[in-house]
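Run log // design_07
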């Protein structure tokens, strides 16, 4: 039967079309097996369809010891086969020990939130089956948030680092299976839900840590008050089970579903002896205090992390100035001289650099343009500044003599030459201002980029391998794209590190971050804003070649400004006094 005949039968509603084989080069055969007949392998079995013909209405018992086709498992209800006369429709769907993550609470919100994770449709949120509930409610609990920060709050020095790396970093703690409970407490104690886990589970984690690191961490002892709560009075509020979690997202969703009512607490306050309830309340406050202390410690840790990052950026700024010969090379564990304190003289842009160029590096700036909707690479900009060529060269006003030594290339992917960004930003691939664009086949673009780093000339005086410093603005996405294109230069460059490096690239410098720490701003500026702040003019931005040039231009200008450059040097007398401008006619 040819395809047109089959279509005619389908459109005319001919019921014989139900018996037509889906393979057009075979004869049709009956859809149902004859009663009492032995199933015989068929053409359908060859196509990946089960050779057993099941009635879709009549329940079918599962032969426990049979081996079924994959299509049988795929097309019928999935469950755990059981012995006896039970049918497929009666399968135990929730026998999934030890982890079951279906929440108990009311349907979860279907609106997107700030935290990552899929949005769960309301119709897919099922009530928590009894088999997922703990058979008995424990009597001893530990604050979950406090336990999640145990390595920071209750370990110190190298021990804290080792425990964190092995068992906490990267959300390892919340990736474990936890039975989560909450205790309804009034806002006067804490406005956030009081999340608890069974102490036996917390101790199991410590046992695992102790065994792996051969140490002896405990939940009891000096300075650990509130880590263990015992609920041995049925008349007092008790933790309520909310579900199991295996990810941060699941934990957050369970917390969002916690009811806000504190009726249980209020009723107990009225019914229980005041002395007993007061002691209970103090015990809860002591435990909640560990969570609040954890928040304070977390805030302190974040601030310490920001301070450390700022210090590293300040050191990076100093190293870059030393590379430009604007200050002596930095020394470890020694207070460095500064321009603001007068320990270093401001740069004189009419004389060559006062100090030797530290490491005599080559700065290479890279910028990438691609089509946002398709992820197609269209342009790569590469600019280089070899400090060897700046020897005995005066910076000039705004560093224009140094900037004249920048060499720039604009590589365009031949197959994508007609792509131009217009949706989110206006691209201008045809407006390269610092040379002539080069059209490179897509298959060769990675090699062309690699050549800029692999073919760096050695130091002429000694033949030594040169120091390469990669320069850019927010380079993570650009490096990721070049890695996907197969650039060997960036294969080992881990941009998730604060200051990444490889055997090829000694250091990665983000000019916007250097400006942020110099100007004491909270956020790094984009390229257009950075140029404006540095009193530079950027034309035809979002051309990869131009952006790469302007990035190096911004670095040079920033170095001179930090060194106390005074623009207008050509308009000043030798004694520093200003030369009067000629009056207009």
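design_07 sequence
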């Amino acid at each position: 039967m040819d395809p047109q005949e089959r279509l005619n039968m389908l459109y005319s509603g001919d019921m014989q079309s139900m018996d037509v084989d889906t393979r057009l080069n075979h004869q049709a055969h009956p859809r149902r097996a004859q009663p009492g007949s032995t199933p015989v392998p068929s053409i359908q079995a060859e196509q990946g369809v089960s050779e057993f013909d099941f009635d879709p209405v009549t329940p079918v018992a599962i032969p426990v010891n049979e081996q079924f086709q994959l299509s049988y498992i795929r097309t019928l209800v999935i469950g755990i086969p059981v012995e006896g006369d039970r049918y497929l429709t009666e399968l135990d769907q929730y026998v999934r020990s030890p982890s079951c993550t279906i929440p108990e609470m009311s349907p979860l919100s279907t609106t997107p939130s700030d935290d990552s994770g899929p949005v769960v449709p309301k119709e897919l949120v099922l009530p928590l089956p009894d088999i997922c509930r703990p058979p008995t409610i424990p009597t001893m609990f530990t604050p979950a948030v406090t336990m999640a920060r145990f390595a920071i709050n209750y370990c110190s020095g190298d021990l804290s680092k080792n425990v964190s790396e092995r068992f906490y970093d990267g959300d390892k703690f919340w990736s474990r299976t936890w039975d989560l409970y909450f205790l309804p407490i009034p806002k006067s104690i804490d406005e956030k839900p009081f999340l608890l886990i069974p102490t036996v589970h917390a101790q199991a984690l410590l046992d695992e840590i102790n065994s792996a690191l051969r140490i002896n961490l405990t939940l009891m002892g000096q300075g650990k008050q509130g880590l263990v709560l015992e609920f041995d009075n049925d008349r007092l509020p008790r933790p309520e089970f909310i579900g199991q979690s295996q990810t941060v997202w699941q934990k957050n969703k369970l917390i969002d579903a916690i009811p806000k009512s504190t009726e249980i607490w209020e009723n107990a306050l009225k019914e229980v002896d005041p002395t007993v309830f007061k002691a209970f309340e103090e015990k809860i406050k002591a435990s909640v205090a560990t969570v609040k202390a954890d928040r304070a410690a977390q805030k302190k840790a974040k601030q310490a992390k920001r301070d450390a990052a700022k210090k590293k950026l300040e050191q990076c700024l100093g190293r870059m100035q030393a590379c430009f010969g604007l200050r002596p090379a930095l020394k470890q564990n020694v207070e460095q001289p500064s321009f603001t304190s007068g320990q270093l003289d401001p740069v004189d842009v009419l004389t060559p650099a006062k100090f030797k160029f530290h490491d005599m590096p080559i700065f290479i700036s890279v910028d990438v343009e691609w089509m946002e909707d398709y992820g197609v690479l269209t342009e790569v900009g590469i600019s280089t500044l070899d400090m060897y060529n700046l020897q005995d060269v005066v910076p000039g006003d705004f560093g224009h003599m140094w900037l004249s030594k920048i060499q720039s290339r604009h590589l365009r992917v031949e197959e994508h030459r007609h792509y131009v960004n217009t949706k989110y930003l206006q691209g201008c691939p045809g407006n390269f201002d610092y040379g002539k664009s080069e059209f490179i086949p897509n298959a060769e673009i990675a090699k062309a980029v690699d050549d800029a780093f692999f073919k760096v000339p050695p130091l002429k005086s000694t033949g030594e391998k040169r120091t390469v410093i990669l320069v850019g603005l927010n380079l993570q996405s650009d490096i990721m794209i070049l890695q996907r294109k197969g650039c060997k230069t960036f294969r080992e460059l881990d941009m998730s590190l604060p200051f990444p490096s490889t055997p090829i690239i000694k250091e990665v410098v983000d000019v916007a971050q250097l400006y942020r720490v110099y100007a004491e701003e909270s956020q790094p500026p984009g390229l257009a804003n950075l140029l404006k702040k540095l009193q530079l003019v950027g034309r035809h931005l979002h051309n990869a070649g131009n952006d790469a040039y302007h990035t190096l231009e911004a670095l040079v200008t920033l170095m001179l400004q930090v060194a106390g450059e005074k623009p207008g040097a050509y308009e000043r007398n030798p004694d520093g006094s200003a030369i009067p401008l000629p009056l207009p006619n």
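The CA atoms of residues 378 and 417 lie 7 Å apart.
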